[in-house]
Structures are given as structure tokens and as C-alpha cells.
Amino acid sequence: MSERKIASNHYPGLDVVRVIAIAGIVLMHVLANGNYDLSGFLFEKVIGTAGNFTILFMMVSAFGMCCGYYEKFKADTINIETFYKRRYEKLWPFFALLCILDVVISPSANSVYEIFANLTMLQGLLPNPQISVVGVSWTLAVIFVFYLLFPFFCFLLFSKKRAWFGFIIAGIYNILCQLYFFDEQHVLGNFMERENILYSAIFFMAGGLIYLYRDELERLKNNRIVAVIILAITASAYYSLSQNDLVMAVFSVAIIIFAITTDGKLGENKLIKKLSSISFEVYLSHMMIYRVLEKLKINHMFGLNAISYGVTAVLTLTGAIAFSYITKVVLEKFIICMKERVNHV
Hints:
single chain
């Protein structure tokens, strides 16, 4: 492992992955909500299934959290209060503002209950939340449950043997959820499997295992063709054979392995770094931007065709990026100002 990576524990290739993944998710949501009636491999197989990149986000989240906190938890040098405060401070201000704006743009009778659940950041513990306020935030909900369980997650990763055992148990849970626990006798209609932490545990465990084997995987840099072949095989299996969650999980593992075994020059680009730093905010806010475009009738400005889709997708993505960047800067300055005032009192 290079000295740069030992010092920063940062993998520039993963910044590129985050940017590509969020762009794909935005393109998919615009396509699905705009009813553009577009067909073909690109729209149906590539863009149409890009929502599955949420699985990739879960793995990257687990890997990233391990980079930042695993060794500290293992060595018992982390302050648990500081750990949880950082989780809330990083996510809550932007998400809270987004919830308020969502209700203003699309008010509903049940929004009061849903906002309460969202603002606690504990909505992922509900059995079947079906929350419409910032509907895409279900990913945030399940990832935040992962944050709550991260100390236990580190316990499972304490050794590679225990980590593999935990991974197998998580895999069995995933299969049992599909075969038994998530039928009509156990859950309500329109239930989304990935919202459940036990169903999604295998994705987080996979990210943790990649972290444990990161040194061994780094050796693929000397034989990069292996990572390329693995990525090509899994991509072919996903796009040609099946887009189910477990196949996507294997594909996601290959993407992460490829990302951490490349030189990461593209990820060191300032624009990529900045986009990666606000990728989750872009994910949370992009549907709000799309709804604004929809209300303004811009999404079908040129009819139901590829041109309208392309224009709407670009406006949605750029609008979400601009909104996320500006809002995040303003919120950070506001929070700093408020802390200074409190300290002066």
C-alpha cells in the first residue's frame, strides 16, 4: 500500500465510483418518472437498472466507515459520543432542510408524521415505513441503521474468520427474507426489501470484508488485468443475465476492487473530489429538483422523446449539484456561526 494511502486511508478511485453511481441513479429516476417510453439496451438495461447502485452505495459506505473508524473501535480509542454526534452533524442539517422543502413543494396530510420520523434519523427501524417525504431517503435510513450498529459491525470484523462467518449468516438472512419472511403473511404491500437492515446486511458485510482484504487486493495493481477481467465478467453477468440484488452485489464488489486497485488519477481531479463530497446530498435532493422541473412542464418540453429526457436529466443533475453545493456551504457557515455564538455566551 502506498504511503499516501496509509496516511490518508483514502482511495481516489472510490470518488469516481460515487460520482458515476449517483449520476446513474439520477438518470434512472428521471427516466422512470418521466414516462418517456424509451426502449433499447441503453435505456432498459443500463439506465433502467441504475437504481441498483444503491447497493453499491451501501458497500462503499461500509468500506468508508471502516477506513475512518474500524481501527479506532478495534483499539478502543474512539469516543462513542463523538462518533454518533458526527453522524448526525454530517447528515441531519441538510436532510432536515430537504424534508421541509419537500413538504412545501408536495404537501400531504401524513407529512407531519413522516417528518417526525425523518428528523429522528431512526425511520429505518420502522417495519414498513413507506415514507413519501424525501422518498429516496430510504437509502439514508438503512445506512443510518448501519451507523447505529457499527460498533457491533466492528465486532463481527474483529478477525477475518469471524467476518466470513458473519457474511455467511447475513447471506442466509438475505435468502430467508426472500423465501419466507417477506411474504404477504409477514409484511405489508409495496414493501421494499432493501429498507430492512437484515436483508441488506450482506451488502455492508461485503464492504467490510473488502476492507479487511484491502492490502491483499492492492497487490492486483501489479497485475491490473485481473481486476479488469473480474469487472468485465461480473458486468456481463449483470447486464446480460440478471439484475437481481445478489448479482448486483457481486458486480458492486468487482467495481470496488477495481476502484481501489487503480492509480486513482481521475479521482484526484478537484471536480471529481468535490462532486464525490456532495454525492449523497445530490442523491437526496435530485427528486426535489425533478419535481420542480415537472411542475414547470420542462420535463416534457420537446414531447415524449429522448431529447426531452436528455434535457431533463441534465437539468436535474446540474440543479441537484448546484443546490447541494450551495446549501451545504451555507449550512456549514451557519452552524459555525451558531457554535461561535454559543461559545461566547
